[in-house]
Design a protein that fits this description.
By secondary structure, the chain is mainly α. The protein has nine helices and no strands. Helix 1 crosses helix 6, helix 5 (78-95) crosses helix 9 (173-188) and helix 6 crosses helix 7 (114-137). The termini are far apart.
Length: 196
């Protein structure tokens, strides 16, 4: 990996950590320099403005999420599909807490700043594509609509487990798998012959 790419990732990861720990107000170029253990001014060299720094952090969050969710396998079996989604959720709850807290900070700020809204929406679209592909391979007749429901379910579980009521009692891997399986069985159920 080129040194510049490595440095950019280091800065993006530090920005995510700062967002998670100190919130949007705590995100400054100097705070990122400190978190990354870099000389003062390093972050400004790679991301001149606050918006550029936020875009760098969001791109890194999406890169990490897409890497964790890829490659998208062909999953026609609901049990295998449920297991894969549950593993993703469990990994995020147990090891991706900082990234999710940073994403929540970003999402709230995006409601007030149109330039961030565009970045956030582009990132969300990239994460929706694998869900649509998975549902198509599982036989969904409405993969776009059902992907929205699946993603909303996953986002609700993640928020509840990381920042919500169950932050200190998140579901385990088995409970996650059972919940995802129930959702998918309901989504992908075929009506009996003769019913619309």
């Amino acid at each position: 990996m080129p040194a510049e790419t490595e440095r950019t990732r280091l800065i993006a990861d530090a920005a995510i950590a700062v967002l998670a720990e100190h919130g949007m107000r705590g995100l400054t170029h100097r705070a990122v320099d400190r978190a990354a253990d870099l000389p003062v001014g390093s972050t400004s060299y790679y991301a001149r403005t606050r918006a550029a720094l936020l875009e760098l952090a969001m791109a890194r969050m999406v890169e990490s999420d897409v890497a964790e969710a890829s490659p998208v396998p062909e999953l026609s079996d609901v049990d295998a599909f449920s297991q894969m989604v549950a593993e993703f959720l469990h990994a995020t709850i147990t090891g991706g807490r900082a990234r999710m807290l940073a994403r929540y900070e970003f999402a709230l700020e995006a409601t007030r700043r149109p330039e961030l809204r565009a970045i956030y929406d582009r990132a969300g679209a990239r994460l929706r594509e694998p869900a649509v592909a998975l549902l198509m391979s599982a036989g969904s007749v409405e993969p776009e609509r059902q992907a929205r429901a699946l993603i909303s379910f996953c986002e609700g579980i993640l928020f509840d487990s990381i920042a919500g009521l169950n932050h200190d009692n998140p579901p385990g891997a088995e409970e996650l798998r059972d919940g995802v399986r129930e959702l998918l069985n309901g989504m992908l159920a075929r009506p009996p012959a003769g019913e619309p």
